[in-house]
Design brief:
This protein is mainly α and 253 residues long. It is built from 9 helices and 6 strands. It folds into 3 domains: 67 residues; 59 residues, no CATH class; 75 residues. Strands 2-1-6 form a 3-stranded antiparallel beta sheet. A 3-stranded antiparallel beta sheet has the order 3-5-4, covered by helices on one side. β4 and β5 form a beta hairpin. α3 crosses α4, α4 crosses α7 and α5 packs across α7. The relative contact order is 0.13.
């Protein structure tokens, strides 16, 4: 967990005991996200994007940004609940290391305790919330790994200055190789040209294939695909969680 996020907890997190008495922004499988929690998080959400509430003149833009902030809180709750369902446990030492980092960052035990009290925490409840945040992050990482493509590829080498006929013949050979591979294998729909030749990406799982443009070298191809796969996996993981759980967005009404 980033130290900045831990610092934010003390300034903006509303403990559950108080959340139960506040107006509701959303419910995730019955668990409440309060309006006050959303308001406090919204300030931080905008600051992370270099904006402030007072700078937003358009009511439409304000609503869209607020809804996006609520999406983040909903996703956090979904990940925490998924971690609980799967029995994910966070090491006690890892939790204590995070708590100690913020204690030092605030300036020692006395100031740390005062900040906790101001935010409605004691050290026990803050430690448990830190455990919750770590569990959600670890759950997200595990789900992304499970949904990320482990791409492999076939390569028919062609000189960068090959004539059109040679280039076309190499591409045809690659597509013939594709047809000869074991039934059931999943490949990108088309071959990719790089200075090294024609590549065909093999996809061991079923995420939608992403086109890769002409790139300078196979290393760049791999880096580009890895980034695309990670972004696609993050979107897919969150979309699946939202579809599989009961979410009520009262704040949007």
């Amino acid at each position: 967990m980033k130290l900045k996020n831990l610092w934010w907890l003390l300034a903006f997190w509303l403990p559950m005991a108080f959340a139960n008495t506040e107006p509701v922004a959303a419910r995730v499988n019955g668990e409440v996200i309060s309006e006050l929690r959303l308001e406090r998080f919204f300030v931080e959400y905008l600051e992370d994007r270099g904006r402030a509430v007072a700078s937003i003149r358009s009511p439409k833009a304000y609503r869209q940004l607020r809804q996006a902030a609520l999406d983040v809180l909903i996703d956090k709750e979904l990940l925490w609940q998924e971690a609980q369902k799967r029995g994910l446990k966070v090491d006690d030492q890892a939790v204590q290391r995070q708590v100690e980092q913020i204690r030092v960052a605030i300036g020692g035990s006395e100031r740390f305790v005062r900040r906790l009290q101001d935010a409605g925490f004691d050290e026990v409840s803050f430690t448990e919330y830190t455990r919750r945040e770590l569990a959600a992050q670890q759950m997200f990482a595990a789900l992304i790994r499970a949904n990320t493509l482990q791409a492999r590829h076939l390569l028919v080498r062609v000189a960068p200055d090959a004539d059109a006929a040679t280039d076309a013949a190499a591409r045809l050979r690659l597509m013939q190789m594709r047809a000869a591979v074991v039934d059931g294998a999943s490949f990108a729909s088309d071959a990719v040209r790089s200075p090294f030749g024609w590549h065909l990406i093999y996809l061991p799982n079923h995420l939608e294939a992403v086109d890769v443009p002409d790139l300078q070298g196979s290393g760049t191809v791999r880096v580009q695909r890895a980034r695309q796969q990670q972004a696609q996996a993050r979107r897919q993981v969150l979309a699946q969680l939202r579809a599989q759980n009961r979410i009520e967005r009262i704040d949007d009404d």
